[in-house]
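Journal club prep — side note

Before the paper discussion, L.F. wants everyone to see what a predicted structure for a comparable chain looks like in token form. Sequence:
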Amino acid sequence: MTTGVVTIGPDRTAGEAAALMLDRDVSVLPVVSVLPAVSVLPAASEDRLVGVVVMRDLLRAPPYRPVSEVMSREPPAASPGMNLAAALDLMDTRRIGYLPVLDEDRLVGLITREDVLQALGRPVYPLTELPWGSTLRERAIECLRDGLEIAILFLDLDDFRSVNKRLGHAVGDRCIRAVAEALLATVDSDRDLLARYGGDEFAILTMRPLEEAQALGLRAIEAVCGLRLSAAPPGFALGASMGIAGGKRTTERQDVHFAATVDDLITIASRQSTQAKSAKTLAAGMAAGGRMLVGPRLQLRRVNLSTEDGNATATVELGLGSKRYVGETTGPNMGTVPLRLLVESTLAAANQVLRNGWRTAVEEVHILRIPTGTLLAVAVLLGRPGQPPERLIGCAAAGSDVGQGVVWATLLAVNRRLGRLLE
């Protein structure tokens, strides 16, 4: 840790704090209850930490505002005896790049992510012994340069902050290690690379075709949901949400910026995992007694999915009163494409009902493995020319007929706004 830490008092202004940070070339400024305006703390200082301020906080505030009004109060902190791996994990969990170091509430130093990484000097994440996310990114770039097709799977543990809050960080660390071991047992080292991406996030780089990559992701989620920890209370269960990107190229790449391509895949997969997590939250609220739909609703009349010569044709018939509306789409019979075709057919039928330029389009289709079963989640975009689209989510239990389940989820999303659109 750094012991000669530059600090500032809470009664100084944001402008003074910004000037001090620029003058001393520091990225974080602990705020302590001291009388002088500026202080350089020795290791034996008796000053008490009351907050932390970074340049981002100062740029958002008028320069005359006192530091006490813009600082982050009760920041996470390390102790002088804390293990470096635990300090790094705390930074990742809280998504920060620094930790004040406190000795019995006295500020005695500051440690940054760069300090920890330099000290560790290791190519793997200490808590899990898995490679870093940067290692996965570099390997993905190498694969693209070698002409290999790749897919990125992003797995995000569900509501993991509550685990640390309810059960403590020691149990949380055991959960992270258990998840890492379960995922390692799921992947094939010849075709897959598993990495700890940070906090409660894991990522898998795979050279599998898209359909196999999707199956790998579902097995990974099932492995997480199947974990049972002896240190956890009865009934406790972990869950995870998944996003996937890549694995779709059919022609040779030309004039490609490989690093940018990998970054795009990681961003898309991460965003999809976040959307899947949001869909689960909505489904849980519905299961707990969410608000019932009122007003006119489209009713499902018929669902048909047929396959021929490697293609799938989805037909969905909806009803509104005495009228019937039919939507039909065709696409390749591979992976989850047929499910998406069913969603597109449902929306094609629904669009025949909408007025005044309103139209719907499919955004995402997810199969969500949770401890109590399987959910189908559909995200629909609703909009009309000149207005930003609205995002609607519908969820339904998979049941014995997955195709019908995804249509029910789509209808639930559309019916949430149908009454207003028909007014």
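L.F.'s comment for the group: DSSP finds twelve helices and 16 strands in the chain. Keep this in mind when we get to the figures.
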